[in-house]
Write a structure and sequence with these properties.
Elements (H helix, E strand, L loop, with lengths): L3 H4 L6 E3 L16 E2 L14 E6 L7 E5 L2 E8 H9 L6 E2 L3 H5 L1 E7 L2 H8 L3 H15 L3 E16 L7 E2 L26 E5 L2 E7 L1 H12 L3 E3 L7 E6 L21 H5 L3 H9 L1 E17 L7
Helix pairs in contact: 2-5
Amino acid sequence: MFHKKHILGLRTLIVAWAVLAFTLPTGVVRGQSATPNSDVPADLPKFDVASIRPHKDPGPGFWRFNSDGISVRNQPIETLLRWAFDVEDDRIIGAPSWAKSNRYDIEAKVTPENAAKVDALNREARRAMLIPLLAERLNMKYHREARELPTYALVRAKSGTKLRNSNPEDFTDRAGSPFSGTPPKGIDTRGGMEVSQGRIVSHDTTIVMLAKMLSPQLGRTVVDKTGLTGRYDYTLQWTPDNNVPSGAADTSGDVHATDADAAGVSLFTAIQEQLGLKLESEKGSVDVIVIDHIELPSAN
């Protein structure tokens, strides 16, 4: 059962469900301007109707996959770009300041005859459907480049991991679910993760998901190099840095201090002591999305 209080809970700033890594299409030559269709499979349905409106009410945001489309509340355009291209914040280059600060609500649906097809799509395909929508409504033009960027590698600590293998039967209450009613058929809803200021709680998720959740906390891409392929339950707590990167999780709202706040534990220390993992600084060539042109959303 999905509870509204969980979806809109102020402590749960981000709820992310276990996902597979999304490989970006390779048909675009680096440095060459890309059209929306070059990043989207030809057989994907397009949204038939869509509204993009400035968000006016205070409170937390959320996103939700519906059987025939998507609902988004109180999210900046830069976050939508990150979702659509499935890259971390540091790999979206050239987005203007308003794309980070202005927040929007989106309702997008396909035609009734395409609803069944969309309902069966996996998460990666649904993300890709956002690209032509954003390109059209924001008059967006972009290209891909390979750039040298600092990253973090998530590896096993010498002391050994402290992760507990999960039991799927233990996770019956999907608090904060981004789904309304019955989840779409094509979306794997196994496992969940709650992320709030200074705290990550995992229920039956992979280390790939942990790397994705750590990236916005640290302001750079985190690459999973642990070699761990299981699914785990754990609670990670640390003292948030006051100098939070611009790409970090939204911490607006009534967020209370965690037990770790008083202890003064850094995220790096917490990962090693509580999970038996370690972050190592690296630098390497990564694929980035360069925004060449983007405009405020057109009127509905």
